[in-house]
Amino acid sequence: MGLITKEKMKAIVAFTLLISVLQIGCAKRSNLNNKTLPDLGFVASIDNDSLLYASGFKLIGETVSKTISPRLSHTAFTNNLEKIKNAKTKLYLCNVLFPAGLKIVGPEVEEERILSYLDSVFLRAEQAGVPLIVLGSGGVRRIPENYDYNRAKVDFIALCKKMAELAAKRQSVIALESLNSTETNFINTLKEATEIVKRVNHPNFRLNADIYHMMKESESPQHIIDAGDLIVHVEIAEKDKRTVPGVMGDDFRPYFEALRSIDYYGPIFIEARVGDAATEIPRAYTYLEEQLDEIYFNTN
């Protein structure tokens, strides 16, 4: 066999990319035909892997600090990689991106320190096979009283553009999360977060539509529709006490209807306070699946 020329190699790469795109498109179109629902995940310690998997969950999320933080020793990180490799559920995301004290908004921002920290986080995320990093971090994005909100927003957008470039280097995606006003005073609604993401305008900087925070802020499901394909991730919990779905019986169907209307088939993760894990976790899977089934398969 002769050597592959540069031209042939380019053609092979181009063909491979085309096939990948076609496969993704076909998979998306086949969702309704095969009655596929969004995958369900749970933000929890990886020590709960067996219970989550047995309950039906295929995906898990953990905090940056416990899994991929550059502050973890090499030994601790290596041990985490072994846990991740052996887990039945896939570690899909890490959240609580920034540690306390590393301000990302306001007058105390140290940009060089932030970017250096993030570069290390994304490197370890790549090594661990974690594709998504959720940017909530309410404490470090809280702005001082009387600080100019518009100035904070402009500065934050400029920083997020640089964060997105770092994420792209390691094939990571940052999902910006709006947090209700009891947790922070900056970006409290999905509508606000959507504006930020649009202005950052980078494929590696997208949206987490957290239905719990939306309900806390009495935010309309229409804002999901308005955000459209900027949404790459969804999280959920019950409104009053952030309980696991099924404990209080919250109706999420209006929000699921909005997700279906934008053809969202990405993951939906529970991030909630768990009481009796052995009872609540299996029930939560069934509870969400029933509401999703009703909305996603109702084609009337």
What can you tell me about this protein's structure?
Helix 7 (190-200) links the parallel strand 5 (173-177) and strand 6. An eight-stranded parallel β-barrel has the order 1-2-3-4-5-6-7-8, surrounded by four helices. It is built from eleven helices and eight strands. The longest helix has 28 residues, at 6-33. It has helices spanning 6-33, 49-55, 64-67, 74-86, 111-128, 149-169, 190-200, 211-216, 222-227, 253-261, 277-296; strands at residues 40-43, 59-63, 90-95, 132-135, 173-177, 205-210, 231-236, 268-270. It is an alpha/beta fold. It folds into two domains: 1-36; 37-296, TIM Barrel (Alpha-Beta Barrel), CATH 3.20.20.150.
How are the elements arranged and paired?
Layout: H1 6-33, E1 40-43, H2 49-55, E2 59-63, H3 64-67, H4 74-86, E3 90-95, H5 111-128, E4 132-135, H6 149-169, E5 173-177, H7 190-200, E6 205-210, H8 211-216, H9 222-227, E7 231-236, H10 253-261, E8 268-270, H11 277-296
Parallel strand pairs: 1-2, 1-8, 2-3, 3-4, 4-5, 5-6, 6-7, 7-8
Radius of gyration: 20 Å
Number of strands: 8
What is the helix tally?
Answer: 11
Strand content: 5-15%
Order of helices and strands: HEHEHHEHEHEHEHHEHEH
